[in-house]
Amino acid sequence: MERRSFLKFISATTAVSALDTGFAAELPKLKYKPSLSEVDYEGIAFSSEDNVVLTKELQYDLLLKWQDALTEKESFGFNNDYINFVPLTKTGTEGILWVNHESPDRFMILDHVSNKPTKEEIEKEMYSVGGSLVHIKKDDKTGKWTYIKNSPYNRRFSGLSLIPFANNEEIMGKTIAMGTLGNCAGGKTPWNTILTCEENYDLFYGETILNDGMASHLKSELGWENYYDNPPEHYGWVVEIDPISGEAKKHTSMGRMAHECATTTRAKDGRVVVYTGDDSPNEHLYKFISDSHDNLNKGMLYVANLEAGIWTPLDREIHMELGKHFSTQLELLIQTRAAAKMVKGTPLDRPEDIEIHPISKDVFISLTNNKPKGNYHGAILKLMEENADAGSLTFKHEYFLTGGEESGFSCPDNLAFDDQYNLWFTSDIAGGSQNKKQYTPFKNNGLFMVPVKGKNAGKVIQIASAPNTAEFTGPYFSQDYKTLFLSVQHPGETSKDKDNFISHWPNGGNSKPIPCVIQISLK
Ligand code: FEO
Ligand code: CA
Ligand code: CA
Q1: How much is the pTM?
Q2: Per-residue pLDDT tens for 12-35?
Q3: Radius of gyration over every alpha carbon of the chain, rounded to an integer in angstroms
Q4: SS3 203
Q5: Of 308, 348, 391, 512, which has the fewest Cβ atoms less than 10 A away?
């Protein structure tokens, strides 16, 4: 079923025909090192080894690790996730890497179990999240990348940074928020700024619960509100960062939710379009169409109705019910989830990362799982906009791949297309669920690929396996497709004993695990 579906996808991509002409068979004769997209990989079996295990054609090196000094004052954050890159040269062998830092791990950061952290300890956690801008460069001889310490391009954004709302919007009496947090995936705009998404914001400052117009505060798991009285309404937004100037702003235009990503493209008429998923069981898929060709400040947010194949606008002037319930459009955007339900947005199985096929323009969406509904292995959904136009308000959809033992993966999350249109994706089986119950056969999380040519065309093959309890996140190809940057997030999470860490990656022995960004290349 999955294979047939994928072959159909291949035939729909015009550029693939050139690859079916025996190009793969000629590879050994080529004098240059091929790119990562040109190899007919052997693949690996599921693995529970506490290491980054790669298919035999590949090797990896560390690029950045938690607490690496970026400047005299700033250091690389914890639990690296989404990666993007803004080139500083035409060849793209030097540039600024953006890396998200999603969540702290109290035991790893504080080096002890702490149920009542002090203000200083909470501030350590606050500094560990957000994102890093890091100047990196490729060595022509070795083909390896290193980061340039003390470069003026190196910057940190954290839970302590002051970030204004776009359009000078005022939320809970303030136009400036303290910090960005829960930074999961993101996107890049056509004008080369970075979008970083605040996902599980309720972990940090809790949430405001509204019952019959009465507001109450649901406490957070991390308890940051015990020291900093920041309102939950300041989080759950898409944040735009200019990697050159370091300017940042929080956009309200794309709504407030557990934003997984902000995948950006253009409508045929040039307006900017952003797709985003709300990663929570039975939450929704959204699309924002900007009024503009060059900013995201104003526009319309839509929620997907899969049954009807329509994008429904979340606008209080269009829907009477929304107009009655929310007194302003900003109030609606703060409560995007409630608004989406009022207009019958389709509940989905944790919509996570989104990528757009470079040729067909089909929109691929990872639905990681929905455990409350008994969907343990998730799927990749394909959405086909009318006339392949991101500006369309109608679409068709089909399931592209379904997770499970037969298809060889579970819990798809981050997606990436390479320059030959092979689809790469990572899995996100929760740390505490790996190698247990329904997830036993899949062992540790992995990096997978669906090649469009070669002996495995149309099949899911595993390219890499992650260290114990870790998750690969943020796959990003260099401009020449010879390096794949990849985050190794939360190795050894759930460890509670310094003498018995669940993972010892990357240093081995009895060492403490460290989240790192790695660079994968051909041997
Ligand atoms: Fe942070 Fe939904 O992954
Ligand atoms: Ca993710
Ligand atoms: Ca995830």
Answers
A1: 0.94
A2: 443 443 334 344 444 455 457 899
A3: 22
A4: helix
A5: 308
Task: Domain ranges for the chain, please list them.
Answer: 3-522
Q: Does domain 3-522 have CATH number 2.120.10.30?
A: yes
| Backbone phi and psi for residue 390, each to the nearest 5 degrees, phi listed first | -60, -15
CA distances from 86 to 143, 237, 246 (A): 18, 22, 13
Q: How far is CA 202 from the centre of its chain?
A: 18
How much of the chain, in percent, has pLDDT values that exceed 70? Answer: 94
Residue whose CA is at the smallest distance from ligand 1 atom 3: 184
- Is 258 in a helix, a strand, or coil? coil
Measured CA to CA in angstroms, residue 176 lies from 172, 369, 486, 523 at distances of 10, 35, 32, 48
- Per DSSP, the three-state class of 323 is helix
Place of tokens 């956690």: 125
Q: Token digits for 183?
A: 């930074």
Number of helices followed by number of strands (H, E) in the chain = 7, 33
CB 260 within 8 A of CB 284: no
- Token pair 């409508």 in the structure block, residue: 267
Distance 245 CA to ligand 3 centre (A): 30
Contacts of 390 (CB under 8 A, 6+ apart): 265, 266, 267, 268, 273, 287, 289, 356, 361, 363
The answer to whether 239 touches 251, Cβ cutoff 8 Å, is yes
What's the 82 CA to ligand 2 centre distance in angstroms?
8
Ligand closest in space to the Cα of 200: 1
Our answer on whether the CB atom of 349 is closer than 6 Å to any ligand 1 atom is: no
Query: Are the C-beta atoms of 198 and 235 separated by less than 8 Å?
Result: yes
Could you tell me where the DSSP H helices lie in 335-406? 336-342
How do residues 460-507 score in pLDDT, each as one tens digit?
999 999 999 999 999 999 999 999 999 999 999 989 999 999 999 999
Give 389-443 pLDDT, tens digit per residue: 999 999 999 999 999 999 999 999 999 999 999 999 999 999 999 999 999 999 9
Nearby residues for ligand 2 (ion, Cβ within 5 Å): 184, 413
Residues with CB under 5 A from ligand 3 (ion): 413, 428
Output the six-digit token pair for 463.
């390219």
Q: Whose CA is nearest to atom 1 of ligand 1?
A: 184
For residue 95, the CA-to-ligand 2 centroid distance in Å is: 24
Residue 90: pLDDT above 90? yes
Token pair listed for 273: 């379009």
d(CA 415, CA 404): 18
Q: What type of residue sits at position 333?
A: L
- Of 429, 507, 500, 436, which Cα lies nearest the Cα of 470? 429
